[in-house]
Amino acid sequence: MSARHRLRIRRALLIALAALASRAAPGAPGGAVPAPVARTIEAQRLPQSSVSFAVLDAESGRVIAVHDGETPRSPASTMKVVTTFAGLDQLGPAYIWHTQALIRGELRDGVLRGDLYLKGGGDPYLTLERWWSFVQELKARGLRSIHGDIVVDDSAFALTPEDPAAFDGRPHRAYNAEPDALMVNFQSVEFRLMPNPDTRKVDIVATPAPPNLTIENHVTLLDGHCRAGQASVDFEVPGEAWDHVVFSGTLSRDCAERSITRVVLHPPTYAFGTFVELWRESGGLFEGGLRTEATPPDAVPLASFDSLTLAEIVRLTNKFSNNLMARHLLLTLGADRFGPPATVEKGGEAIEAWLKERGLALPGLAIDNGSGLSRAARVSALDLARLLRAAFHSRYAPEFIASLPLAGIDGTLRLRMQDAAAGSVRLKTGHIDGVSAVAGYVAGGSGKTYVLVSLVNDERCDYGAAEPVHAALVDWIQQSR
Fold first, then answer.
1. What would the pLDDT profile of 6-28 be if each residue is shown by its tens digit?
2. Which region, left, alpha or beta, applies to residue 114 given φ > 0 means left and ψ of -120 to 50 means alpha?
3. Which candidate, 403, 441, 446, places its Cα nearest to that of 424?
């Protein structure tokens, strides 16, 4: 056999081995990317260096497939699985927060001649409906008229001032709301814009409508069809107090009612304004002002209002990827372990201590504020997968697993992966500019459960390039396992 012939055979063997390697079942750590996933990554024009994923057998922990699994990446909102699992594991599903009302002065025949203190305990879900229930509780306790000030006490949290525009330049978007110990209704107001042909004006209705919020309406009503040029409304908040909003632009009379929700006021002024609105609507009297200070020791408790349970909070946080609720939970973990007031630093230290106690080494973890709405947060795919496996075997696994969105059914997965069998895919999603991620559990065709974490960090995520990659991993698990 000639040397040239031997070289030709050797090359053919190398090519065949390479082909086999590319089709090899990825049963070992560091194995090849599954062929259908590799094709999807290539079709979406994503560099493989921008993708990390890990698939683990949830029962045994065996690594089924992994690619770049130890590289810390931005996880976006999949970071919430760390915070919520830690919360359930440390605090228990029945944990509740308390919002208190205390008085200082004389309460007689329904009249308080003194101040009413509203003391926040960090309730992550003190919605407008629940705030109304709090008001009704005070009335049930006999309070009818307040002849003094309303004092907001949010001292349970001690937070470094943040620039709410720092993340993406949109400080009034609900996802950018910052934590506060007395956070009411996510500090949000829904503004409904309604063309009114009878008055030839555009009506603006705010819900809620706190009396300390001024709405300036300069929207012009136009005739004609509802086209882009005749449906251009601008929203502006000109002052630092965020207590004055300005609407301008145009809206055609043929346009349908539209609404926008924005963060306005600041947490103490929002809590005060909405309380006064609901108090007066309920027949209560109040003509005083607002103060913000800690409750003095001699204040007398009047009522305590309980939050939803932590299990319910975790479900809402993960199903709908609520950043503010996740941040409140991280702060609560810090205060519970190290004492009040709550700080972000204590929250991070509480997570680190908990991981150590559980024997979970996550060397690449940088939890930052606990919500994933951060450019500093980092975790590797393998670390997050190992944590999810620990959650799968934890004492509160049912509560945690049930909190994750179901593909094609609810939460942030309601419109995604709709071809998956009902209940077979439970994944927390995550997306910020340049980042797309999923993390959770997938049932294989055999019925076995697998942990899946997929993190993609690339500018093409903003154009949907990562979603087919996540879906291809789910399909591969369900078809091959």
1. 434 344 333 333 333 333 333 33
2. left
3. 441
Q: How many CB atoms lie within 10 A of CB 237?
A: 17
What residues have CB less than 8 Å from 345, skipping those under 6 apart? 334
pLDDT at residue 282 greater than cutoff 50 = yes
251 vs 223: CA distance, rounded Å: 9
Q: CA distances (Å), 371 to each of 109, 213, 321, in order?
A: 47, 29, 8
Under a CB-based contact definition with an 8 Å cutoff, are residues 372 and 175 in contact? no
The CATH code that applies to domain 97-307 is: 3.50.80.20
281 sits in the region (left: phi over 0; alpha: psi -120 to 50; else beta) called: alpha
The residues, any chain, with a CB within 8 Å of residue 44's CB and separated by 6 or more, are 460, 465, 466, 468, 469
Distances (CA, A) of 408 to 411, 416, 419, 470, 479: 9, 5, 7, 14, 18
pTM above the 0.70 mark? yes
Listed residue (49, 40, 83, 81) closest to 67, CA to CA: 49
3-state secondary structure of 346: helix
- Residue ranges per domain, the chain? 22-94+310-480, 97-307
Looking at CATH, the fold of the domain delimited by 22-94+310-480 is given as Beta-lactamase (3.40.710)
Res. 29: pLDDT tops 50: no
